């Protein structure tokens, strides 16, 4: 009997590590409500707040950055309005409001608001009433494009132009919107996209190959700066091919990544992104991931995409939503399970960041600097400050036939290629938008040929 | 592409109005728990706490003014008892207690309490035990009438007589009780009854005619004082008829209104109320509306009443409960949707009160004065201080044939009629209760004739 | 009408007793999270954390003492591991981890932990990485026995040997584990076992005889000290028989009681316990009762046991779980209803402890002393300090044929017998474990004979 009851040997430190339970999240980076420093910073940008197919003939109640709002399509020209939820008169919710041409009317006493929240009518008030001039309803401008509604919720005098990317309107590219909610803080969802190493385990070695077996190999990652923001090159060798996946980042939470179901078995020059993505805080502990999936001929040689699965609450690649049984989530966890299970607000002080977390550390540093700069009264630098028209971005897959070089360390070769390709992309910024794509393709081919 | 991405023009002030999100409810008027100033004030009155058809042979757990209580019918004479939920011995809930003649017994160790919370037996204690004398259970007196149980939860030395209204026992009037809960603060539910203007939009123009198409016309409202409290006259002209609806208010939350489905197409003299109503706080963010619906021959010429729909959680007029699909509530909102959607506790500092909110402003002012008076140690003035017997009230519909007067502004005419009719009602207070009704009817007819 | 509306007479003190609503629980005795004084004290003991039949081939998430943990069976030798829930790298939950020989691996980036939380592998990190040495995961040692997993969550230098009781491995005794959760603080669940008087009402007189009709008679209770902790003798006379039920207590929350369905109709010498039981805090307001039910020939002459009902979330005696309709719980309340309905955290300041609450008062006093002693830096006295091997315990039923003595007060007789039997049990501690049982039986028989 004694052997059974013998305590196991080992360096058990649960009690020594007890302070993990009293540590808390970093409010500077995680709190997004009105009046918070991070929230004020986030409010300097256009953000997608809803899928427009969710807006019917009734007001649509949403929550963004901790604010309860109502989104509606006025019945005149069909423009979208986005206002504070509660009527400025006596606070009845405008989700019960009456949509009219040019605005929305509260059903309690009939106050009517224009799209900008100006009070248009107060029908039960005396004619001489001045309340229309003294009061107003909080409202935000909305831009609608390809199934998404974007809003700017910051100070009016700091409203930037809408940043239009080169990936928003390309011939042969069908874009389908998607919006999926996660019950956790925005930052941990966003960081997942700055962490190119999690594909090795989470998406490949942990349970099964969720995307492509090449993801089991450790990539070489190099971070680079671009005019629109940051990007990284993610390089792997596959036989004679060097496969570069380029990932765009634009603060605060915009990312574009390569194709979802690529096969690096042939040359590919400046293939473009499979996903354009914003991570949008609903509030401190809820987040929506809003995306356009791009569908182009040739991006999916294995036929794994499924347009019918892209929409509200769903998408066509694995592990992005909660609609799987708990046991399936345990046996085959996905991105959703990774970020949600970090907790309602990830607690940085109990992490042990390492070499592979360079991207995560970098984005937190950048975010903190930007937040403090805005809090100090400085304007945000927008990429649209430098561009009048369409912004050039880089994300996508490029595959070059450059065999391993005898007598040279292949790691050094791949690193050299990373920087050369990044340079070609950056040179493309100087080209007119009409000829830039061909310029990059030609330059990539010439560079590949230089290794022959 | 540029036109699509151009931000809409307008005076968008969502960010300027951001402080709405940090504003909070007024604790002086909204907090009702034990020890709060509003709660102490509310505890000076008899209030309906339950429908008696919900009390079977088991203890009935309820929550009133933030207190968890148990209501039961003792098995001797069938009297109702109302005590604190937790046994005074070791806190087991008396919802699991044993109902006996004259009281309730805790099932844990058998302590038995009388209706007033006195400990009658402690069967497991030694005979010499003094605990029966030292301890007791909190209990409140209960009065039962026409399907409702009323309790007084205040200090014993300030317990007023039960205020009996003239509308509580009239020949030809069938009264059916109803109790409906709302997940919000009591005050916003109560204020709805002080706001005669919301009928124009909410009940008529917003979605459809919920009661009568005449409600689309703006009423003329005059507030008057009565011995029992306040009342207002709500006057509209319909052809040759002048339709006066009189609404009673008695602090803190008693109201009576006119008929629910009236048709002002003939003379009517001193028609009486369709609803007697108390708004009772469950706690700071939950409220029960407790009513008697009155059914009399002639009150409902269109046959819209439905006695079978009046009861626990329901009534026979639209929009008082949550049991409608969300889309129906959006398309055709009712009173419930108005007050619940103001939020768990309406935030007054983000309202813009106007001319039509005179009643709301008035009741808040009266309430604040009364609360502060009680907090300062003053007694409450009850209408029963002046009356030994039945209290005369006024609510109901009166329709007089008084055509528009050539050469006179009709608004001035209606105002004159309002005050004259209010005067007749107030004169009636001086009459013996047996002859008062006929006195008022005769006086109304004589007044009407004076315009012929 | 006046009689109807007359308030009932009585000494109603609900308002006088209003301060019950502002009283709060005693944090010193009820808060168990990391860093609390009670929590630190509880962490000095081995406690059952789970039923092992709940641990399959996936990580099993549990919560103990306010800590979120994952329990798993490594696939090498099948040992159990218990670690903090969140990976020490980036906080992904290890409920999504990969179980391997000797440990568990996080599925996000593949960090592998040994059973003691040591980092074994960080596959995405460079070979030279030192993070394995600098960081670790909190983990606790686990002992597995007869379907239960026990853990020690305290400081390593204060880890006691596992206390093995004489009741854990007896010939002819089948032991089946059970684990049932209650949504309330641990202390009120534990106290129920220190309160031998509740059987009179709750289990017998309140609704029906849940166990045996003899429980309707008030017992004579005497508390005694033993080497392993405390015990009490619970004595009743049934005709010529004196029925002694002995109940063991070991701090902080271990108890053993007599048979569940006994019939005191014949002699019985040192019958043993029907239940070995630990009350384990999940967190401040959730508790699990973890037991072994003992099944021996002769313990249940009426055939009321049902082994198929003993397991996860259930047991074979009435009233221990919530899986009964609310009306059934009201009509026939059980232990679960008693302790859960005291509230999420029982509030001692609104109790009126009396004679029958001596056990409850005693255990609170002992607990407070122990908590303060540990908080002051003292070690806990464990029964294993004095014993190398199996610990002798006493719980069970003894029935002696000792008729009432003419001319003597029977209460005095029963009290004398209580102390004599307690003395025999304590003398047994000095015997070798092999012969102790027979020693006690013989001594009981000799004592019984001395009364003949």
TrEMBL record, chains A, B, C:
Protein name (database record): Rieske 2Fe-2S domain-containing protein
PROSITE patterns: RIESKE
Listed Gene3D superfamilies: Rieske [2Fe-2S] iron-sulphur domain
SUPFAM superfamilies: Bet v1-like, ISP domain
Domain Rieske positions: 46-151
InterPro entries noted in UniProt: Cholesterol_7-desaturase (IPR050584), Rieske_2Fe-2S (IPR017941), Rieske_2Fe-2S_sf (IPR036922)
Disordered: annotated span: 303-325
Protein's organism: Aliisedimentitalea scapharcae
Keywords on record: 2Fe-2S, Iron, Iron-sulfur, Metal-binding, Oxidoreductase
Species lineage: Bacteria, Pseudomonadati, Pseudomonadota, Alphaproteobacteria, Rhodobacterales
């Amino acid at each position: 009997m004694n052997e059974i009851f013998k305590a196991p040997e080992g360096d058990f430190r649960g009690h020594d590590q007890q302070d993990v339970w009293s540590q808390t999240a970093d409010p500077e980076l995680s709190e997004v409500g009105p009046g918070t420093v991070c929230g004020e910073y986030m409010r300097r940008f256009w953000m997608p707040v809803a899928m427009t197919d969710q807006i019917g003939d009734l007001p649509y109640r949403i929550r963004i950055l901790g604010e309860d709002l109502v989104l509606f399509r006025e019945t005149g020209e069909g423009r979208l309005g986005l206002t504070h939820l509660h009527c400025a008169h006596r606070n009845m919710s405008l989700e019960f409001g009456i949509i009219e041409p040019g605005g929305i009317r509260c059903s309690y006493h009939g106050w009517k608001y224009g799209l900008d929240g100006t009070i248009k009518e107060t029908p039960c008030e005396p004619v001489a009433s001045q309340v229309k001039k003294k009061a107003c309803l909080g409202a935000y401008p909305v831009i609608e494009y390809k199934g998404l509604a974007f809003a700017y919720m910051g100070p009016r005098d700091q409203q930037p132009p809408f940043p239009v990317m080169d990936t928003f309107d390309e011939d042969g590219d069908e874009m389908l919107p998607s919006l999926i909610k996660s019950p956790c803080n925005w930052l941990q969802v966003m960081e997942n996209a700055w962490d190119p190493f999690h594909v090795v385990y989470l998406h490949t070695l942990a349970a099964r190959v969720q995307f492509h077996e090449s993801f089991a190999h450790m990539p070489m990652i190099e971070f680079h700066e671009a005019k629109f923001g940051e990007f990284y090159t993610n390089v792997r060798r596959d036989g004679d091919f060097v496969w570069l996946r380029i990932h765009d980042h634009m603060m605060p939470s915009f990312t574009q990544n390569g194709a979802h179901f690529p096969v690096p078995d042939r040359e590919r020059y400046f293939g473009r992104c499979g996903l354009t993505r914003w991570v949008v805080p609903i509030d401190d502990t809820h987040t929506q991931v809003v995306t356009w999936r791009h569908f182009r001929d040739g991006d999916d040689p294995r036929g794994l995409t499924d347009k019918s699965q892209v929409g509200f609450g769903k998408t066509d690649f694995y592990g992005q939503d909660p609609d799987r049984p708990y046991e399936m989530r345990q046996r085959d966890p996905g991105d959703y399970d990774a970020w949600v299970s970090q907790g309602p607000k990830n607690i940085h002080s109990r992490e042990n960041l390492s070499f592979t977390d360079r991207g995560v550390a970098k984005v937190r540093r950048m975010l903190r600097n930007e937040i403090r700069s805005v809090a100090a009264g400085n304007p945000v630098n927008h990429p649209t400050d430098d561009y009048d028209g369409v912004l050039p971005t880089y994300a996508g897959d490029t595959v070059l036939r450059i065999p391993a070089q005898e007598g040279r360390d292949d790691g050094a070769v791949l690193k050299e290629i990373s920087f050369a390709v990044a340079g070609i992309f950056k040179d493309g910024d100087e080209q007119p938008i009409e000829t830039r794509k061909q310029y990059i393709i030609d330059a990539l081919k010439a560079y590949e040929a230089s290794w022959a």
